[in-house]
Amino acid sequence: MENHITTRHRKKFWFAFFVLFFFWYMMLYGYDWSSIPGLSSVTHNQSDDDKNQEDSLQSMESNPIPEPRVVENNREIPIQSSDSNSVPESDNAKNQLENTATPKSDNDTVPLPQDKNVTVVSDESNNYDPIVEDLPGLEKEMEPSLPKEEQKQEQEQEQEQEDKAVTERTTQKPCTGRYVYVHELPSRFNHEYIKECKLLNKWHDMCQYFVNSGLGESLGNPQRLFLPSGWYITHQFSLEVIFHNRMKQYECLTNDSSKAAAIFVPYYSGLDVSRYLWDSDKASVKDSDSIELLKWLREKPEWKFMNGRDHFLVSGRITWDFRRAVDNYTEWGNKLMVLPESQNMTMLTIESSPWDKNDFAIPYPTYFHPRTDEQVLEWQNKMRRQKRRSLFCFAGAPRPNMEDSIRSEIMSQCSAVPKKCRLIECKNDKHNCLKPANVMRMFQNSVFCLQPPGDSFTRRSTFDSILAGCIPVFFSPGSAYVQYLWHLPKDHGSYSVLIPEGDVKRKGVSIDSVLSRIPRSRVSAMRERVIKLIPNVVYADPRSRLKRLDDAFDLTVRGVVRRVEALRKEMKEGRNYSGAFDSESSWKYYTFGTTAEHEWDHYFKRYR
Question: Average pLDDT of 126-133?
Answer without folding.
Answer: 37
